[in-house]
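User: Predict the structure for this protein chain, please.
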Amino acid sequence: MSELNPNPIPTGIPAHPASEKAKQQDVKESIRASVLNEANSIVNGARASTYGGPEDSFRTIANLWGAYIPYNFTSADVAILLGLLKVARLRNSPNHRDSWVDLAGYAACGAECGLK
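Assistant: Here is the predicted structure, written as structure tokens:
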């Protein structure tokens, strides 16, 4: 009489494609969450205490830009343009995590400025 195999799946067989896809999805979601969490920590932590809220900080930048370029920039414009700066940098270095974090942070701050 033979013993039952406690591991009915033979070793050496590659994982089912669906389980590999699920693992890849988990990794992607983990990256998304960590980038957003880091951006959240930055914009609601050290940056906020150092530079003030985005509305005030971006309004100051808008006024300075408006003195240089004759245009009435809003604080939301500043968030958009700083986001575009990050997009331009990411075009050359798409694997630079800090730029992705900053882009997410500018989007969040821009939402706060633009949705008021």
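The mean pLDDT is 86.
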